[in-house]
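Structure, all two chains, one model.
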Amino acid sequence: AQSVTQLDSQVPVFEEAPVELRCNYSSSVSVYLFWYVQYPNQGLQLLLKYLSGSTLVESINGFEAEFNKSQTSFHLRKPSVHISDTAEYFCAVSLMDSSYKLIFGSGTRLLVRP
Amino acid sequence: NAGVMQNPRHLVRRRGQEARLRCSPMKGHSHVYWYRQLPEEGLKFMVYLQKENIIDESGMPKERFSAEFPKEGPSILRIQQVVRGDSAAYFCASSPGQGITDTQYFGPGTRLTVL
């Protein structure tokens, strides 16, 4: 069975500092990888995704994630965070033969302090 | 273009009552998905529906839970005879298609509390 692990339930960081949110997955078959963000009182929004090709994917607001097949990881990074990045971040995978079925990690709350 | 709408946002029920959760997909989206998030856990897939059809209900509990997406109107997730363990956040998502390039857009969720 497939699973996604986000070891850090909360990551506090000061504004303008770099941050890395960790995500590891377990699967015996190839997967697609996603990061979703949830701002307070809102639905989840797709931040970025890896389907194929370059292992480094970027979002429009400065986040990036790198697919590492040997480490089965898809960590999310940002070199300098803003207060507005405070949110819950969910890592997810889906299988190629049922790509609509997202399998989520338990989420990491990023708390950016001034 | 309005996003995915869910109502109610908060629902309180006593044990044994019925809960009805509604989801209106984004305009132009004919694919709807329901996920459940138990406390301290990630979202878990429940069911995938297209208009008038259940495509995959592999994540639905075998009893008391049902879902529909009629030709007209919102998708409904129905929980009969609720128990305390049903307390969770229920999220709906929609997409224009089921391909990997069809992003799922999520609603804000309905938080169900069973007393």
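The CA atoms of residues 14 and 115 of chain B lie 5 Å apart.
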